[in-house]
Design a protein that fits this description.
Layout lengths: L1 H6 L12 E3 L2 E5 L3 E10 L1 E3 L3 E5 L6 E10 L2 E3 L1 E3 L3 E7 L11 E4 L5 E11 L18 E4 L2 E8 L12 E13 L5 E6 L2 E11 L1
Antiparallel strand pairs: 1-3, 1-10, 2-3, 3-9, 4-8, 5-6, 5-10, 6-7, 6-9, 11-14, 11-16, 12-13, 12-15, 13-14, 15-16
Length: 202
């Protein structure tokens, strides 16, 4: 194993930025309260930190981290790259949803409209056979969440053909925790229609 360790460098963890974790599952554990699980995307979460729960809902909620568990061990902190469960005080299980994010207070905003550069998958890549037009409504998979979006093509583009790369505007049905540079997938009826990267949020 020493030879393996010397050959493969440790992955760089994005610990210098404010804490953010996408919520995958939420459970209520007797004696521990509400637990949200997910992979910490960036930053460090510590027991005692006050955090915000952002996205999907119109209002932002607040909670305090009362503990962090990873592989059945209780830790004082979790950092970027860790898959863990974060125990939260001051919030009920019903108040957190998959697709929301836990984050350092005041660091993440929600948006329901955004621009993106996308690639439309071809049929042999698992995509659609046919083109799509403005007002097309697929599901956008963003972090751990899924939301229906309405696509608007540029005025100069009549249709988006499989294999095309283009810039589009999207309007989501719910406010989501978005930021420039965030990647997402567009899916419809079991097919991945396209993949994209957000260029502007508003």
């Amino acid at each position: 194993m020493e030879a393996v360790d010397s050959f493969f460098p440790d992955p760089q963890r994005d610990v210098d930025k404010p804490f953010l974790m996408g919520v995958e599952t939420v459970m209520s554990i007797t004696g521990k309260g509400t637990v949200a699980t997910g992979k910490i995307e960036r930053g460090i979460a510590k027991t005692g930190d006050t955090i915000e729960i952002v996205g999907v809902k119109d209002k932002t909620a607040k909670a305090t981290i009362s503990g962090i568990e990873m592989f059945h061990k209780t830790l004082d902190e979790g950092q970027s790259g860790d898959q863990c469960g974060i125990m939260l005080k001051g919030i009920k299980r019903s108040e957190i949803l998959r697709g929301q994010v836990l984050c350092a207070a005041g660091t993440v905003k929600t948006f329901s409209k955004f621009d993106a550069d996308i690639y439309v998958l071809k049929e042999d890549e698992g995509g659609r056979k046919k083109p799509f037009f403005s007002s097309y409504r697929p599901q956008a998979f963003i972090r751990t969440g899924m939301v229906t979006v309405e696509v608007q093509l540029p005025e100069s583009v009549e249709m988006a053909m499989p294999g095309d790369s283009l810039s589009i505007s999207l309007a989501a049905e719910k406010p989501m925790a978005l930021e420039e540079g965030l990647r997402f997938a567009l899916r419809e009826g079991g097919l991945t229609v396209g993949s994209g990267i957000i260029t502007k949020c508003y």
